[in-house]
Every structure is written in C-alpha cells, then in structure tokens.
Specification:
Blueprint: H1 2-45, H2 47-62, H3 69-100, E1 109-112, H4 113-124, E2 133-137, E3 144-147, H5 149-165, E4 172-180, E5 183-189, H6 222-233, E6 235-242, E7 246-254
Parallel strand pairs: 2-4
Antiparallel strand pairs: 1-3, 4-5, 5-7, 6-7
Helix pairs in contact: 2-3, 3-6, 4-5, 5-6
Bound molecules: adenosine-5'-diphosphate.
Adenosine-5'-diphosphate binds near residues 208 and 219.
C-alpha cells in the first residue's frame, strides 16, 4: 500500500510537470505566432507609408528654390503623417508585448477627470476629419478616480481615435463622463460605419478587423490593448453598435 501511495504521488508530480511544460510550450507557440504575424503584417502595413515617405522625400530633394511653399508643405506633411502612422503601429506592438509579458508598470494616483478629458479632447481634435467634432460632457463638480493616468489616457485615446477613424467627415463624436455613487462611466459615441453583427463577438481579439473596415488602415490591436489595460485598471468595457449607424463604447470603473 505504501508503495502504491508513493507511485500515485510520483504520477501526480509527473502530470504536474507535464502540464507546466505544456503551458510553457503553448506560451512560446503563442509568442512565435505573434512574431510571425507581426512580420507578415508589418510587411503589408509598412509598405504603403514607407513608399509615400520615400517619394515625398525624393520630390523635396528635387525641388529648386522656385518651388512653391505650398508644394513643399504638402510633401512635408505627408511625410509627417506617414511617419506618425508607422510609429503608432510600432507602439501598439511594443505595448502589447509589454502587457503580455506582465511588464506593464501600473501606478495609481488620484486623478481629476475633467482636466484629463479636456486635455485629451483638445489633443485629439487635431486629428479629426473635416467638420468632424468631438463634443464632451463632464460632471459639473470636479470628479476623481484613483487610477493610472497614462493608461487611462491610452484607453480613451484608442477609443476616440477609432471613433474618428471609422466615421465620416462632418460627423459628431460624443464623449460623455458620468459619475455617481457607484463609480465613473465614460461613453464614446460615434455616427460611423458601425460593426457588423456577426463580427461583434470577435471585436476584442488580437488582430481582429471587422469586414466592413478593411479599406481603412488598422492593425486590429487597439481594442485588444484597451481590454488588457482595463483589466489592469479594474475597469469594464462593453459596446453597442449598428452597422451603418454608429457605435457606442462604454467604460466603467466601480468605486
Ligand atoms: P484597428 O482600428 O487598428 O483595426 P482596433 O483593435 O482598434 O484595431 O479595432 C478592431 C476593429 O474593430 C477595427 O478594425 C474595426 O473593424 C472595428 N472598430 C473598432 N472601433 C470601431 C468603431 N468606433 N466603429 C466601427 N468599427 C470599429
């Protein structure tokens, strides 16, 4: 009997060790898959911006002193826009790698939300389309949240820039902040293309892009990052969307 118990223990230990090894293996597989998807995505996504940068730079190099300022500005702005696009793709990858490796540093402090939102909206108003406006409503009294301000800013920036990107010029984007005894709620509402019903359940998956959005540049990483950031901040996200009408994303923090 004694030796049976010994045998059982040994088997259990062996199964445990196997499980650990399998876990490590599947983590490694996931990392490898992520790397190869990065390479294939990067080679697609980087090609257009890089060739635009190259051709604009070549044109500027050929300009003589008689070239109009307007033409110079056009190409310089094109270079800037494309460099910033490449930078944001790279930043998304770096953020995701950092979160997935558990290396994200979270530092919660007491944040005044009105000031954060006002500043953010003014920053994002520089990337809106023609006649597209971000309107925001914040509680009349100052309201505070104990959170990591950098991460919260990144969450709201990702949601607002999606609202801008996936809706047309001339449309309105609303950011509503409400505070009550239970906590704080942010709502980002757009009048854009919406998300097809069949795609909605996959929306927060890594690299997922809805079928109606492929003509617009994107990586499918922003919402995956948002979801993981919100886990770090103890926040919850949900959304409602109607294809062709618009989407509303809701982020909640409980007191
Ligand atoms: P990206 O915008 O880089 O593709 P995201 O992870 O932020 O990546 O979004 C994933 C997909 O969800 C997008 O490709 C798009 O299809 C859809 N999506 C996200 N936000 C919106 C929105 N506000 N309106 C319509 N579609 C959206």
């Amino acid at each position: 009997k004694q030796s049976n118990i010994h045998l059982e223990e040994e088997i259990i230990e062996r199964i445990k060790a196997e499980n650990e090894a399998n876990k490590a293996l599947s983590k490694e597989r996931e990392l490898n898959e992520m790397k190869s998807r990065f390479v294939s995505m990067a080679s697609h996504e980087f090609r257009t911006p890089l060739s635009t940068i190259l051709s604009s730079a070549a044109l500027i190099a050929r300009y003589t002193t008689s070239e109009t300022q307007e033409n110079r500005d056009k190409h310089i702005n094109r270079i800037k826009a494309n460099v910033s696009e490449l930078t944001s793709i790279l930043n998304e990858f770096l953020s995701l790698e950092k979160i997935d490796a558990g290396k994200m540093h979270v530092e919660k402090v007491r944040v005044e939300i009105g000031a954060l939102v006002t500043e953010l909206v003014s920053e994002l108003s520089t990337i809106t389309k023609e006649d597209q406006h971000i309107l925001f409503t914040i509680p009349s009294d100052s309201c505070y949240l104990v959170t990591d301000p950098q991460i919260l800013r990144q969450v709201l920036t990702n949601l607002l820039s999606n609202a801008i990107k996936y809706s047309d010029q001339g449309s309105e984007i609303h950011l509503l902040v409400q505070s009550d005894d239970y906590g704080l709620v942010f709502q980002i509402k757009d009048q854009g293309m919406g998300i097809p019903e069949n795609d909605q359940k996959y929306l927060f998956g890594k690299f997922f892009r809805a079928h109606n959005s492929h003509h617009i540049q994107g990586t499918g990483l922003g919402l995956n990052i948002v979801q993981k950031y919100l886990e770090l901040l103890d926040g919850k996200i949900s959304f409602e969307s109607v294809e062709g009408k618009g989407s509303t994303f809701t982020v909640k923090f409980n007191n």
